[in-house]
Predict the 3D structure of the following.
Amino acid sequence: MTSHASAEMLSAYLDQQLVAREARELEEHLETCSQCHVRLEGLRKVIDNLRSIHELSPPSTLQQAVVRRIALTDEPPGLLDRFEQGLSLLNRQNPILAMFGVVIALVLFIYLFSYNLKLHENQNSTIPVIFQDPPAAIADIAAGTRLVVADRSLVWSAEGYWLEEGIDVGAVSHSLEIDSSAGSELLAAHPKLAEVAALGRAAVINIEGDVIRLE
Amino acid sequence: MAAIMAATSAATSLSSNPDLDLATRHRYGDPKAFEEVYSRYAQMIFNLAYRMSGKPEEAEDLTQEIFLRIHRHLARFNGRSALKTWVYRVTLNHCRSKLGRRHYPTQPLADENDGEGVNLVDESRDPEDLALARDASRQISLALRQVKPVFREAVVLRDLQGLSYDEIAEILEVRVGTVRSRIARGRDRLRVVLEKSS
């Protein structure tokens, strides 16, 4: 060793972390280099001082404080956490059963997802819109007649009621004054609706959910 | 309760890892499991928090928060490392995030009585030794505050917690060579500070 020893070398030497050859070379160097020797002794003193420090005991009230704090702030694990924990535990204890469980869960998920999708499609395709107390004058409307009422597209069904196309049931609730300007436009655009209005009973058309109410 | 005990019993009987069993018991709501974790690690956490913060009262707050974290996350302990290693990581991560740089003074705090009201040295020693030990303890505690946190962590884990280089490397998630370097730099900084102060 020609130059001075690094702090890393000296520190590792004190921890007996040097390989035999490195330790021997360092010891030879230390015999002739007072500067490195002083530094080594300084480091040794630091270590001795650190190791002479007595560990503190935590305050006796600390455990109670911890328990109290947990009771105040900690929330019980949610459903997903419990599922995840259970799966993780099962995975460690019985990986085959865990894999089987995952497959079952996946199949169930796909089934429910597709069922929901189908339901959604149904909701968005054709929804029956029923006139409450339908006037006789509209009973002979030809099947397939289309009518747009307050942005809702209606089709007169062969079964004798209006079907709504492409609109979610819960999303629309309109009230239209027949004698308002918008109502007049609507009646002008849709003669069949005008026929209803002409009966004098359709002063207001309320569309609520899947029901068109004539008042 | 019977279901919890049955599930816990089933779980523990299948595992050969006592740390994992402890986490499993906690997961199933066995309060004794957390009590055991507390009794195992309270002193270690408190001392580490004290050495990182430099103040006993702050160490107490930190220890409470760390146990809160442990209580929340112990169920997720996967047994890949020893529970002790995991607890050390939780402790250091919390100290780092909570204390930040502002709590690492680079100059000694002359108006602070380090460890005031806390027993820092073994009281059973003879009075002269005790006085010297107290003085040395106070000096080294003050000097530790002047060491950068990254080096201080390594020194505290090695010389105060008595961990091996391999254990420290696992806790800090660095290579052993890095641990060796950090310990050396921390100790050398302490040497300089102590030599200046004497």
Remarks:
- The interface with chain B takes residues 6-12, 15, 17, 39, 42-43, 45-47, 49-59, 62-63, 65-66, 69-70, 73-74, 77, 81, 85, 88-89, 92-93 of chain A (CB under 8 Å).
- Confidence is low (pLDDT under 50) at residues 122-137, 166-176, 200-215 of chain A.
- Residues 95-125 of chain A form the longest helix (31 residues).
